[in-house]
Design brief:
By secondary structure, the protein is mostly helical. 77% of the residues lie in helices and 4% in strands. It is built from ten helices and two strands; from the N terminus they run ααββαααααααα. It has helices at residues 3-14, 18-45, 63-95, 113-154, 161-195, 199-205, 211-222, 226-234, 237-245, 251-273; strands at 47-51, 57-61. Strands 1-2 form a two-stranded antiparallel ribbon. It is globular, with a radius of gyration of 24 Å.
Length: 274
């Protein structure tokens, strides 16, 4: 896939729509943060901070505070997929020459929100597993290495250069394995993220498709295109740095540009497999 053509198509789809594209993304981002933030703030009001005689600050919360913290997490988990669905649909419509309004930011709450929520949760869970399993195994090797190190220090087995070589021979391979699994977790997690990146677009085009089938279809579309997608995203790094220099103001234009590019990528990839 030609990333230059994709970005050209994205710019063309945003022509005359930049204002409402920025507003739509801004409203979605604010509501995604504000709604859970309200419950988190209420939970924080139930927290108290005490300082020990040693000067250590300890923060504790009541049962009511814990409940509001849990509600904040649940709220974030529920509304994030719905707003992401709405954003994806708006930019997909723009890519297909259709119009949208800022009010479309609430489409996710109107069009079978339970299924969209399930798609988002399953997507998150699958990607999380891809990160967690290798990381957990790496943590086990690192824990064993730490245990062996403590034992060797406890029994004075590291006292000379020969002992140091013995230490490296016993602990070194474990640390190497732990590092290898942590790297594998990152790589596998990124691959999984790319595999299921298009789930909301598939959900939009196939409202009657099952949740599991939606994830399978996203994986099918991304088969052989993950490198193309990675390179496409990589080309935005320069713009992201510029946006950071402008204290984040540049992201108001960058986020819609990226969203429009992903929509164009999806339409192009989808058409290639049909």
């Amino acid at each position: 896939m030609n990333r230059l053509l994709i970005k050209k198509q994205a710019k063309a789809s945003l022509k005359g729509k930049w204002g409402k594209s920025i507003l739509l993304c801004l409203v979605a981002a604010l509501l995604t943060g504000v709604i859970p933030g309200i419950f988190y703030g209420i939970g924080t009001s139930f927290s108290t901070t005490k300082q020990t005689a040693e000067g250590i600050k300890i923060t504790s919360t009541t049962a009511a505070g814990t409940v509001f913290f849990i509600i904040a997490i649940i709220a974030l988990a529920v509304i994030s997929p719905l707003f992401q669905y709405a954003q994806s649909k708006a930019f997909l419509r723009a890519n297909r020459g259709e119009d949208f309004t800022v009010g479309n930011v609430f489409d996710g709450f109107k069009e079978m929100p339970a299924k969209t929520f399930c798609v988002g949760i399953l997507q998150f869970f699958v990607i999380w597993l891809c990160y967690f399993i290798p990381s957990f195994i790496g943590g086990l090797f690192l824990g064993i290495a730490g245990g062996r190190t403590q034992d060797m220090l406890k029994f004075g087995e590291i006292a000379s250069s020969d002992d140091l070589g013995y230490f490296v021979g016993r602990v070194g391979p474990l640390i190497f394995l732990a590092f290898a699994f942590f790297v594998a977790a990152t790589v596998i997690g990124i691959i999984a993220t790319f595999m299921y990146k298009l789930v909301y677009y598939v959900r939009i085009d196939n409202p009657d498709m099952s949740v599991v089938q939606i994830l399978k279809t996203s994986r099918k579309i991304m088969h052989g295109r993950k490198i193309d997608y990675f390179v496409l995203q990589f080309t935005f790094i320069g713009w992201a740095l510029v946006s950071c220099i402008t204290c984040g103001i540049g992201f108001l234009w960058l986020v819609p540009y990226i969203e429009a590019s992903v929509a164009a990528f999806y339409d192009g990839a989808k058409d290639e497999i049909i």
